[in-house]
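Feature request, filed as a ticket because there's no other form

It would be nice if the structure record came with a short human-readable summary line next to the tokens. Right now we just get the raw output. Example of a typical job, pasted below so the devs can see what we mean:
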Amino acid sequence: MTILKSVLLFGVAALLEIGGAWMIWQGIREHRGWLWIGAGAIALGLYGFVATLQPDANFGRILAAYGGVFVAGSLLWGVLVDGFRPDRWDVAGAIVALGGVALIMYGPRNA
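Raw output as currently delivered:
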């Protein structure tokens, strides 16, 4: 159950951080305005809150592992929202990054 909770929290964090950054991008680069920028800033703040809910208490471990989630999630966001088509190197990099997440977060540790 702890791994499932952790994976779900990483998913929510990814939606908030990637979505927030995308909204700021839209507000500035696509000239959608301050409402988009403000919504993005709120989403980014909520991402920071969600990260604290991870079962592991080590900030460095959580943020390091989340980096891999961010890599894969950003590519997936691009596919679903922006019509981006990753090449095989993008996919390979995302798989390596997610492998790193699994090792960092869920590898066996001495108690």
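Something like this underneath would help us a lot:
DSSP finds four helices and no strands in the chain.
The two ends are 18 Å apart (CA to CA).
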